[in-house]
Structures are given as C-alpha cells and as structure tokens.
UniProtKB/TrEMBL annotation:
It comes from Microbacterium terrae. Residues 8-109 form the Bacterial alpha-L-rhamnosidase N-terminal domain. InterPro entries: Alpha_rhamnosid, Bac_rhamnosid_N, Rhamnosid_concanavalin. This is Uncharacterized protein. Residues 121-162 form the Alpha-L-rhamnosidase concanavalin-like domain. It comes from the Bacteria. PANTHER family: ALPHA-RHAMNOSIDASE (EUROFUNG), ALPHA-RHAMNOSIDASE (EUROFUNG)-RELATED.
C-alpha cells in the first residue's frame, strides 16, 4: 500500500561499471559517472495503474557509503549522509535498456549467529553456521570518528580464530574490529 509521502530510496554504487574490476584495474575502467533511471509500475486496489519514471523532479542526497566495491567492500561514514544534491540529467541511449527478466533480489530470511568467539586480537568473530550471501546488520557505539571494521570470511585460518577474507560468492564468518 502506498501512502502520501511515500519515499523510494536507491543506493547507487560503482558496480561493474566503475568498480575497477576490468582488465585495466584503474578504478574507472568503463565510465566515470554513475546514475539511476527507473520506471515504477504502481498497481492500485481498484485495478488502475500508473507508471512513475525518474525525472528532474526527483531529489537526491548523499549516503553514508563513501566508497564501495564489489570485492573490496564499503567504507561507511555516518557523517556523509543526508546532504541534498542537485539532480543532473545524464544523456544516454535509452534504446539499450531492457526490462529485468530475472526475479528481483529479495531478502529470504534473517539469520542469527550460532556462536560468537574471539579472534587472536580479541575482536569478536561471529559464526552464522552456514555460507551465506547478504548484509550484516549491527549496532556500534562510540565517539564520533570511532572506526569499526567488519570483515567477511568463508573460512577461519587454522586454530587462530582469525577470519580470512572471502574470495568467493559469500561468507560464513564476520569479524568486527573497533579502534579509534
């Protein structure tokens, strides 16, 4: 159900386009600008519908994600979020757009840790009991400027309880480290 004042939020990241995963590995292999275009189909209870497309009437703001990479992770800085930006139209050939043919990526379930232990440095290592693909939700407390590093891993190194960086499609373990 859509109510007055409903909000659509989209986080636009580098992805394959600008993420430096190509052959050159310079950080901007295919293009320098990121953008967002959408057409949203709204189906009302009375069986009528409406299409809402992105336009210059939309608004944009900064997010807490300062840097992002498919393999190198994200740097999140809460002080960056919330600054309103001017929406800029980026010319592109809309004839190359095709409708999404795959099912959408959706949350299937929320997993709770099966155990929490300590790494050799004393940082908590959180075990979800299975390999998974997804996001970790956590609350961190600290003074402004305090940093928390969250490292995802598929395996633990030997007997040390240190998480080894994931190189595949998912993770089982998460290590959180705070300094500041």
């Amino acid at each position: 159900m859509i109510r007055d004042g409903a909000l659509v939020e989209v986080l636009v990241g580098n992805g394959w386009w600008r993420g430096g995963l190509g052959f050159v590995k310079m950080g901007i292999d295919y293009g320098s600008e990121v953008g967002f275009a959408a057409e949203i189909l709204i189906q009302y209870a009375d069986t009528t519908s409406a299409n809402v497309a992105t336009s210059m009437d939309w608004r944009a703001h900064t997010s807490a994600v300062g840097q992002n990479s498919i393999y190198d992770g994200e740097v999140i800085d809460a002080t960056l979020a919330g600054r309103w930006l001017e929406v800029v139209e980026i010319p592109f050939d809309s004839s190359v757009l095709v409708p999404q043919v795959k099912p959408p990526i959706v949350r299937h379930e929320a997993l709770r840790p099966v155990s929490i232990s300590s790494s050799s440095t004393g940082s908590p290592v959180i075990d979800f009991g299975q390999n998974l693909v997804g996001w970790v939700r956590l609350r961190a407390r600290g003074e402004p400027g305090t940093r928390v590093t969250v490292r995802h891993a598929e395996v633990l190194e030997g007997r040390t309880r240190d998480a080894t960086a994931a190189r595949g499609e998912g993770h089982r373990y998460v290590r959180a480290h705070r300094w500041g």
